[in-house]
Amino acid sequence: MKTDTQIMNEIAIKTGYLKELPKEQSEAQKKLLLEMYKDISKLCDEHGLVYMMGGGTCLGTVRHQGYIPWDDDLDIMLPRDSYEKLIVLLSNNLLGDKYEYDTPNKEKDCKNTFLKIYRKGTYDVEITSENAPGPKGIFIDVFPMDYAPANTFKRKAKALFSDFLQAVCSCVLYVEYPSKLYKKFMLQTDEGRKRYKYRMLLGKFFGIIPHRKWVWWFDKLNATSKKTPYITIPTGRKHYLGECRPASVYLPVRKGTFEGLEVNLPNDVETYLTSMYKNYMDVPPIEKRERHFVYKFKLPKE
User: Fold this and answer.
1) Range of the domain at 127
2) 207 touches 138 (CB < 8 A)
3) Which of 91, 144, 190, 219 is deepest in the core (most CB within 10 A)?
């Protein structure tokens, strides 16, 4: 079954409805993200937090020694104990006044199921979250790494429940904070229309409970620092089981080079990337390159 991202990529290519950022803006965004990363990594280093590049940023580090040329985002991952400590540091404003953040919490709704750190004075608004709550600036995704049950049955059962809750979170978000842009975009093809209607149906059914609670429950279900032989990233692109590997694949970190900076990578980065992308050193054709569907974009004033 195709993911939402795959379907949206196909619609974008077929219809030309959304254009990629002009090269000048894309390069400026990459430069800003690198500055943001330096600030975040410095804070993590000062407080002894474990962190590493994840997803496409990890792939870019290994394959391109920097950003994937057609990509312009940056992802990092932290084991749950370091992740929670980072949130406390952010709440105490130790990253500085240039930044704000959003993460699942009891007090207010959060459109994300994980931590995002935003640069104030910018816009990077995706069509799926046109009217969603929280900051809307240029951001770095910060994914928690959680220990998974050692028992196979318990691990699979938790994965099933986790993936279900995550799907409910996104569907209820679309219904509670509807986006006309997203609807118009998805209704352009039969496959997109079917996926949109399916999302709306689930969102209306489970929307009797507010989105805020679903996101909080999802985070609390997965949040564990109790060590087991397995680590997963439940909010990752391949979800709970798809990101679940022996802990030794992720820890301890090893070094790599990203845009001239020394950065942290998963310990067995080859196994990690193979599990995520198979032939990860092969450059994919244009039609299979992931895109970000942004409708409002602004860089900070100099």
Assistant:
1) 4-277+289-294
2) no
3) 144
